[in-house]
Amino acid sequence: MKKTYAILLALTVGVVSSLATLYATMPPSGELSLAEFARTQEMIESYYLRDYDTEEIQYAGLKAMVAALGDPYSVYYTPGEFETFTQDSSGEYYGVGMGISIDEVTGLTVVTHFLEDSAAKEAGIETGDLIVSIDGEDVTKKTLQEIRIMCIGEDGTRITIGVKRGEQVLEFTMTRRSVSLDMVEFVMLQGSRIGHMRIKQFSGNCAELFHEGMEYFKKQGAEGIVFDLRNNPGGYLETVVNILDELLPEGTVVYTKDKRGNEETWSSSEGHTKIPMVVLVNEHSASASEIFAGAIQDYGIGEIVGTRTYGKGVVQVVLPIASTGGGLKITASEYFTPKGRSIDGNGIYPDHYVEPAQQGDAQLEKGSEVLLTLISRR
After folding, report:
1. What radius of gyration do the chain's Cα atoms show?
2. Sign, CA torsion 227/228/230/233
3. How many Å apart are CA 183 and CA 205, to the nearest integer?
4. Which pLDDT score, from 0 to 100, does residue 30 have?
5. Phi first, then psi: what are they for 341, rounded to 5°?
6. Among residues 183, 182, 283, 180, which one has the least CA distance to residue 231?
7. How does strand 326-336 pair with strand 137-138?
8. Which of 296, 294, 276, 274 is nearest to 369 (CA)?
9. Taking the model in full, what pTM does it have?
10. Which residues lie below 8 Å from residue 75, measured CB to CB, with a gap of 6+?
11. Got the DSSP string for 345-367?
């Protein structure tokens, strides 16, 4: 694989310290200095009537600073939250076993699907439920990632999730349990030469299982593949680029552009798998999923089936803060498909629009039908 890009960020505590010094020594210009925050804390210590946790209010201030950006994908993590975030990204953690996304109508977090052996499903939560509270705390203004982290905890600990279902507000209590998620599942569709690969997220063991699945399809004599990215919220840019390198001809996979106009380009190598393919997407297919679908569509090597994707066309960098063990996930650039399409707020429009059916899987059925047509044209 060829990658032509400049390293985007390499933050260290020294850089953060330098910024702090810069702000503290800047001349008055209508902007707050760090001294203002220190003075406010001094006044709290001197005058506030009740007991409080100094560390808690300091972290709250940092969280508020990032939240004030108005970007749902940028988050400040306390040390405990950052550890949980890392576990969530690895695919092995203790949680409730449900997938979530942002509901486009209400802006609230909505339950989209359940994992196998889901504690949330057993407790009575249903797909379409809107999450409004966790352990009695209002979460309607929290980001998707903050809610994910709140759902993860120690093995065997209890959690109560409040949901809005229609006009009702219901609460369900459950116990966190081990969640070990294989990011890819693959199988030959019964009675056909079509491989079906479901990619749940571009993280954890995704790349390893993808390559394993491709070898399996080859041995089984698959004549075409349906890549199922429905409800896939995204993942790591490096992972999806690694996977697309096996599918695309030589050329640009994706490129990003930051606030200063600096571009980074990821390219695929010459060798690739030449096989008819269809990609299934829906409104919960986001970020890396849209990079995947957009690249396949731009190169014309496969067709997209389903509904318009989510429209998350921005890239976040994760910056560990070594001095505290916390971290910052912040939107740093926007990505573009090989043909220069911006997906942010727009999404990927399918070549074949198919709504999900009440019974059966109309999208998979249509995808298989389209794939058979592509196979017949070879």
Report:
1. 23
2. negative
3. 6
4. 54
5. -75, 135
6. 283
7. unpaired
8. 276
9. 0.74
10. 63, 66, 143, 145, 146, 328, 329, 330
11. TT-PPPSEE-PPPSSS-HHHHHH
Residue 4 is predicted with a pLDDT of: 36
Buried b (16+ CB within 10 A) or exposed e, 143-153: bbbbbbbbbbb
Residue 50 burial by Cβ neighbours in a 10 Å radius (0-12, 13-18, 19+): exposed
The tokens for 314 are 């921005």
Task: Read off the tokens for 281.
Answer: 């997407």
Measured over the CA atoms of residue 94, residue 96, residue 97 and residue 101, the dihedral's sign is negative
Angle between helices 237-244 and 206-219 (to 10 degrees): 20
Residue 222, Cα to own-chain centre: how many angstroms?
A: 30
How far apart are alpha carbons 143 and 135 in whole angstroms?
16
Identify residue 378 by its one-letter amino acid code: R
Cα maximum dimension of the chain = 79
Q: Which two tokens stand for residue 179?
A: 């969640």
Angle at 344 between CA 268 and CA 314, to 5 degrees: 65
Is residue 62 within 8 A of residue 175, CB to CB? The reply is no
**What is the DSSP code (8-state) at residue 203?**
S
pLDDT digit string, tens, across residues 289-331: 999 999 999 999 999 999 999 999 998 899 999 888 899 999 9
Query: What is the spatial distance between Cα 256 and Cα 275, in angstroms, rounded to a whole number?
Result: 28
Three-state SS at 317: strand
Contact at 8 Å (CB) between 211 and 184? no
Enumerate residue ranges in the chain where pLDDT < 70.
1-32, 87-92, 180
Q: What's the token pair of residue 313?
A: 């066309």
Integer angstrom CA distances of residue 136 from 5, 110, 161, 356, 357: 46, 18, 8, 34, 35
Contact in structure between 327 and 347 (CB atoms under 8 Å): no
Residue of 349, 357, 352 whose CA lies nearest to 368: 352
Is the CB of residue 273 less than 8 Å from the CB of residue 347? no
Helices (H), the chain: 13-25, 34-47, 54-67, 79-90, 119-123, 144-151, 206-219, 237-244, 288-299, 362-376
- Give me the helix-helix angle, 54-67 and 34-47, nearest 10°: 140
